[in-house]
Design brief:
The protein is of the alpha+beta class and about 300 residues long. About 45% of the residues lie in helices and about 10% in strands. It has two domains: about 5-60 and about 195-295, 3-Layer(aba) Sandwich (Beta-lactamase), CATH 3.40.710; about 65-195, 3-Layer(aba) Sandwich (Beta-lactamase), CATH 3.40.710. It contains 13 helices and ten strands. A five-stranded antiparallel β-sheet has the order 3-2-9-8-7, with helices on both faces. Strands 4-6-5 form a three-stranded antiparallel β-sheet. Strands 1-10 form a two-stranded antiparallel ribbon. A hairpin with a 3-residue loop joins strand 8 and strand 9. Bound molecules: glutamic acid. Glutamic acid binds next to loops.
């Protein structure tokens, strides 16, 4: 299979697309990103890496960071984490507050904002935000095999100044007793975690542990990797998760920065970036690109 040629065809299709979606502007610092950017990178099980377009430009990984935070949280708390957050798709927008009332402050899953805030709160317990962020960065850098991965402080500040919905979610959960740290502290850590920047090449390499690639089993155990992948498949694209599973057939996690990390277990780790989003807050061209990739390669967790 000529993965390099497949990637080139995907890049041409992306370049010619008449509709690139809309760049997220609710975080002011992200609003000025060039919507014409497109990058994609694939690390194969044999270690070869193929890239096209802007695959070496750093972008804000935003909610893709929730995968790494979850891996840390499960490592530290194990199954106790599930007392505070569920494992069901939400069917609602990523920042919805609706279900929290109904479910008495227990978010549906660790990938919607409320759930990710609880995950960060749980890992934070007993640690200073700086220690948590240091541990998270160490984890991501080890996974990627690259120390040149950093937090964009301007993006973190921008979201801290404007993240009223996230503050509302955190305070609401605190009222139900499902937040142990002061909301400002947990959110400070959460906003900085979302402001990690990576290139597609780095992000694809950081997903190797989820694809079960050789040498990565020490980072997260195989049984936990399977569970994280299951959550990515069912909850990784908010209320677009079912559609992504249907169209792509692979676990993936998107972020409002326009990045998506996609895992073809045993075969490849894939990262794509295009800042324009569809109506569900997932990268429009990124989703189309991985759909093309899955079609051309036949990669699917469903055989
Ligand atoms: N930092 C973003 C927020 O909390 C993450 C959302 C996303 O990437 O989907 O709103």
């Amino acid at each position: 299979m000529d993965v390099a040629a497949i990637l080139q065809a995907i890049e041409v299709a992306a370049k010619n697309s008449p509709d690139r979606g809309r760049v997220a502007d609710y975080i002011p610092e992200l609003a000025s990103i060039d919507p014409d950017r497109f990058g994609m990178s694939i690390v194969m099980a044999d270690g070869r890496q193929h890239s096209v377009g802007d695959a070496r430009l750093p972008f804000s990984i935003q909610s893709v960071s929730k995968v790494f935070a979850l891996a840390l949280a499960l490592g530290r708390l194990g199954d106790r984490l599930w007392q505070r957050v569920g494992r069901e798709p939400s069917g609602l927008a990523f920042n919805s507050i609706l279900q929290l009332e109904h479910d008495r402050g227990i978010p549906r899953n660790p990938f919607i904002n409320a759930g990710a805030i609880v995950v960060t709160d749980a890992v934070l317990a007993g640690y200073a935000p700086r220690e948590y962020l240091g541990e998270l960065l160490r984890f991501v850098r080890t996974a990627a095999g690259d120390d040149d991965i950093h937090i964009n402080q301007d993006v973190a500040r921008s979201e801290t100044e404007t993240g009223h919905r996230n503050f509302a979610l955190a305070h609401y959960m605190r009222a139900f007793g499902n937040l142990t740290n002061p909301p400002e502290m947990t959110l400070g850590a959460y906003f900085h975690q979302c402001a990690i920047e990576m290139t597609c090449e780095q992000l694809a390499r950081s997903g190797r542990f989820l694809a079960g690639m050789p040498g990565m089993a020490g980072l997260v155990s195989p049984s936990r990797v399977r569970r994280i992948n299951a959550l990515m498949l069912t909850c990784g694209h908010y209320d677009g998760s079912g559609d992504f599973a249907y169209r792509v057939g692979l676990p993936g996690k998107s972020g409002v920065g326009g990045g998506i990390l996609v895992i073809a277990p045993g075969r490849a780790s894939i990262a794509v970036w295009s800042p324009g989003l569809n109506s569900q807050g997932n990268s429009k061209l990124g989703t189309e690109a991985v759909e093309r990739l899955a079609k051309s390669t036949g990669w699917s967790v469903f055989g």
